[in-house]
Amino acid sequence: MRISELSATSGVPVPTIKYYLREGLLPHGTPTSATRAEYGEAHLRRLRLIRALLEVGGLSVAAIAKIVAAVEDETVPVHTMLGTAHYALAPAVETPADDEEFGAALARVDDLIDELGWQITPDAPTRTELAWVLARLSRLGRPADDEDLRRYAATVMELVTIHDMTKVSFDGPREAAVESLVVGTVLYGKVFDVLRRLAHESASAQLLNL
Amino acid sequence: MRISELSATSGVPVPTIKYYLREGLLPHGTPTSATRAEYGEAHLRRLRLIRALLEVGGLSVAAIAKIVAAVEDETVPVHTMLGTAHYALAPAVETPADDEEFGAALARVDDLIDELGWQITPDAPTRTELAWVLARLSRLGRPADDEDLRRYAATVMELVTIHDMTKVSFDGPREAAVESLVVGTVLYGKVFDVLRRLAHESASAQLLNL
Questions:
Q1: How many CB atoms lie within 10 A of CB B159?
Q2: Is B162 on the interface with A (CB under 8 A)?
Q3: Does the CB of B121 have a partner CB in chain A at under 8 Å?
Q4: Fewest CB within 10 A of the end CB: N or C in chain A?
Q5: Residue of A nearest to B124 (CA)
Q6: Is residue B208 within 8 Å of residue A170, measured between CB atoms?
Q7: Cα dist. B133→A25, A59, B126 in Å?
Q8: What is the pLDDT of residue A97?
Q9: Cβ atoms < 10 Å from Cβ of B31
Q10: In Å, how far is A32's CA from the nearest CA of chain B?
């Protein structure tokens, strides 16, 4: 299809498509004349991925370029490619260097992950992120106890295994795997959070016998 | 205690305390002379609540003033008082008036809540928020199916009943109930979200046999 059709089918305006071509986010089409090129399904898939990373993930063009590079490089294993997107979605957390409470929380997170037998890379930003929240709870005088964390972790892993993992397209095109991961992580994360707050209202009403 | 001690014990600077007094967030102390007043435990509790609403909840002073008014008015039932804080923590969601997809999603949320037998007020902003995420998933070509939602809801309610509700101080001072709700909703929400993303990494590694 021509660029005008690619635009109509994807809903992405032509100038935006041209911008993505210049930035290297979208591969060039096959030239059919000096001024025309032919685009295909792969371009539609890529535009869909870029849209998810931008609108759902809230990522910058620079962050998207890195993810696209991992998608395009077939020598990058699927798990590493997914990790690129996964880590890019994590909120930035400042690591307080000489904070005792934070150090203790980080050690606790590492212990928890070991105990659960979860496979997490040593430099995963999620470790720091969890430590940061735990240190904050302690500082507010409401520390999370180990039992709580284990129960939360077990429930979460059960849900992830029976639900979330079935939504990731591991076997299809590399773009589709990353796109499904972004949508699943961000939007199902929101579904979970809203349901949790709805459950709070209902449980509170029942506890107070309303 | 004097205002200087109140500051030292709470960690809130004296000028900030004076600002809260002027804005009506903190009740005045008992005057002991023309320029001095005596403060007590209730003031410490209130400062702790304000800190949680500001720093953890990220609320504005105007939003905090409304919550404080509900805390101070003993004729406001506990559930309503907690609801004031609970709803203030919900992210603002624009309601697209004439959007068919959104309307359908909202009807679906209402049906789900009915089916689950949850006690949620008809005007809870969480209904709109969930509908908005569901409409978004549909628009991205990844609609959530009913089975998924029911399973998520059941798991979440179980966790909330056995864990979250035990952390809310329903029987103590009204300030402490609201403060525990804010910390629990926001920070345990983050704990949940990070654990979910950690579980994704581990489950993905196992699925790909790494």
A1: 20
A2: yes
A3: yes
A4: C
A5: A198
A6: yes
A7: 27, 18, 11
A8: 67
A9: 10
A10: 32
Tell me the C-alpha to C-alpha distance, in Å, between residue B201 and each of A161, B88, B192. Answer: 11, 33, 15
- Tell which of A56, A74, A92 closes a domain: A74
pLDDT mean over B123-140: 91
Q: Is the CB of A79 less than 8 angstroms away from the CB of B205?
A: yes
Q: What's the average model confidence in pLDDT over A44-64?
A: 91
Task: Tell me the nearest-neighbour CA distance from B24 into chain A, angstroms.
Answer: 24
Mean pLDDT (whole number) for A144-169: 86
B positions 61-90 inside 8 Å of A (CB): 77-79, 82-83, 86, 89-90
In chain B, pLDDT over 70 holds for what percent of residues?
Answer: 98
Tokens representing residue A28 in the block = 């060039």
Judge if B65 and B108 occupy the same domain: no
Q: In this complex, which of A165, A185, A204 lies closest to B203 when CB atoms are compared?
A: A165
Q: Which of B76, B108, B128 finishes a domain?
A: B76
Give the integer Cα–Cα distance in Å for A170 and A79. 9
* Domain that residue B41 falls in: 3-76
Based on C-alpha coordinates, what's the Rg of chain A? 21
Q: How far is A176 from chain B (nearest CA, A)?
A: 12
Q: How far is CA B128 from the centre of its chain?
A: 16
